[in-house]
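User: Okay, second chain of the day. Same drill as before: sequence in, structure tokens out.
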Amino acid sequence: MTWQPKDLMDIKREFVALALQEGANRRELCRRFGIGAKAAYALLKRFAQEGPAAYSPRSRRPLTSPSRTQPLLEQAVVALRREHPAWGGRKIARRLADLGHTQVPPASTITAILHRHGLITSQASLDATPWLRFEHELPNALWQIDFKGDFALAQQRCYPLTLLDDHSRFNLALQACDSVGTACVQPHLIRVFERYGIPVRINADNGAPWGSPRLAGHGLSELSVWLIRLGIRVSHSAPYHPQTNGKIERFHRSLKTEVLAGRSFSSMHEAQLAFERWRSVYNHERPHEALDMKCPDQRYVPSPRAYPSSLPEIEYPQRDTVVVVKHNGEAVVHGHKIKVPNSLLKMPIAFRSDPGRDGALDVFFCHQRFMQLDRDYKTISN
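Assistant: Same drill. Structure tokens below.
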């Protein structure tokens, strides 16, 4: 299969960025991107010779010239700011250098240029205030997923689905959805898994379609049950504390400022086109201050855990007491009826002694503990 015409430049750029990562499995990337090895290696060879020009027709005129005078460099600063109104001096300085400009002025000088041209407002200065957070050491150790609220289109509402790698801030999905249900979300996740592989853990907010730890049995939803069966650990943000999903909350701030604010879209397709254009800039062009002014694609590598063609069998250690969930979310263990999520209907769950609590039982679905019972078989609050 050859390169597909839709979003051709973005797909090529993303493929090259991932293929050039140290230790990248290029044959596997070809399979995930649905392209032939011959076309892929031809693109990599051209990229080695021409750099970013390899993504577009050979006649493309270079964006920069080292012989440009200072006034032209100032014009480049202004042009970048107009193209990306939320970018500050540090991002613009790094992007100018990435584009090949020489004698790029320091960020403070660029900020002065922006002030001189009336391109920085008091609100923009407030939005630039950094958030403090930690990060996981490796890509795919944790993905953060959520919806960016919703907004009105001409005849329906759009719910932007966002998925972010914690370590690299690489945006794995930015999808215009017509609902927040599992039937809408799951196909998009499958496409992400097919391209980027399976993460160790996914952290979600509370509520549909993710579930909630405040509900009985950790509120396992149909979607979280599917993710757990794939071998993914599912966790949730602390209620009323969005900082526990902080990177995606910060991503949403950027999405609102750079894409949604002051704009309207007539259709889901129009919104998706805007999302795809911005996602490409965010992943491959926009320097990130938390990444030492690198772009997310410079820190992200796909997961070595490929998406399986079928769900694996559910197995438990022999020491566990295994029961199958009946209708109405009922499981019977040692003569006691236990209420568990209805999403586990007809599936085996395991009861295992808790070594830290005398007489208590941990209740597992696959690898994930979702409930604890005391010696009287009553639920223990986690």
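The chain has a mean pLDDT of 85.

User: Thanks, on to the next one.
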